[in-house]
Amino acid sequence: MNLVQNYLAQVNAWLPDSADEDVLQELESTIEEHLEAFQEEHGKPASDKDIADILRAIGSPKTVASRFGKQQYLIGPELYPMWRYSLRIALTLMLILFFINGLLRYVSGVSDIFLSTGWFMGLLQPGLVAVAVTTIIFAVLERQGKTDYFKDNWDPLKRVSVKQSKSDQQDAVTNVIGDVLCLIIWNRWLDFSQDAVYRLDSLTVQFHEIYHLLFWPVNILLLCSIALYGWQLLNQFWRKSTVIAALVIDCVSLLILVLMLLHVDQTQVIGLSDNLDVRITENIGLIFKVSFVVITGLILMDLRHHIKLLKSL
Description:
The protein is mainly alpha-helical and 313 residues long. It has helices at 3-14, 23-42, 48-58, 61-66, 80-107, 119-143, 166-190, 209-213, 215-233, 240-263, 278-282, 284-312, and strands at residues 161-163, 197-200, 203-206, 237-239, 268-272. The longest helix is centred in the C-terminal third of the chain and has 29 residues, at 284-312. It is elongated and about 85 Å long. The model has no long low-confidence stretch (mean pLDDT 78). Keywords: Membrane, Transmembrane, Transmembrane helix.
């Protein structure tokens, strides 16, 4: 992708929904006119450095896209993209903190916050505060005429982000739901916090000690993964830092799963009820092994996708 096409793609990423469909065509024609004028003036085609200078003169993608937005009564088009982006950050952080707090209270048995009737108001109130505070800040900046307060040092020679596809958003939803379920299963059903023994009314299973040692690392990893993909749900772009964070989570997850797989064969049933199906007790290790292999395969798919993203940045 050359500099002009990359520039148009970034402008398109920042364009509001109300923008006309021919905006990019008009912008591309304007850039071509600048390039033709440069060639006539200097007698040679524009180099990447010359194209970058022309694109800088036109403006950063965010600034150019803001010119095509519908005029806001409270926040003007130049500040509106940053207001929307800042609001996503505030709401994402609020959601992450809310769910982490709720999950910690749920798995510790302090409160079933997600099953109570007060969880909606507990989520709505800080959300409204986040919207109000963010809007007031940007309204004050608009009122004082500081529309260039968030002016960025954009450089067309540097590609700093890639817009997420619809499949990326779907993967983020899947990862958040899957991590939340794993967190609940790991803490409420398996619960290796005290030892490596799984206890059910009709079944008691002794696991290798490594499962007990991995109890808190797995919790921390799952919370980090929920935070990362929760952030990506409301964010439009993959940046190098978020891709690297996803790669780190993938690699650590694979390491933990390998440790579990290496010791899953040492699982032993040390107590069972007479009415329990014998086939379950005989294949308990195989059941866990297949589960870990499936999760490993899903993580390897994520790892492959994230490596591709990193190469594109």
